[in-house]
Design goal:
Order of helices and strands: EEEHH
Radius of gyration: 14 Å
Oligomer: single chain
Number of helices: 2
Helix content: 25-40%
Structural class: alpha+beta
Length: 71
């Protein structure tokens, strides 16, 4: 299993981040977009990490207990 993110800025100065999960199913690569969100804050590691953690919690990849205990 693998999770990736991609940051994009459009010509209209709209910045977005997409979170995608990838996995193998019977030797076939499967990918699903979990979220695409507009970023209103700067593209710092802290802000991108916070957004990624929110998405992973929403999709039950990690729990809030795991997140808070590992920080």
């Amino acid at each position: 299993d693998h999770i990736s993110t991609c940051n994009r800025s459009s010509s209209s100065n709209c910045s977005c981040v997409t979170c995608t999960v990838h996995f193998l199913d019977d030797y076939v690569i499967i990918s699903y977009v979990l979220s695409t969100k507009e970023l209103f804050e700067s593209h710092t590691a802290t802000n991108l990490t916070a957004d990624l953690l929110k998405t992973l919690i929403e999709w039950n990849f990690i729990s809030m207990t795991t997140t808070t205990s590992s920080m």
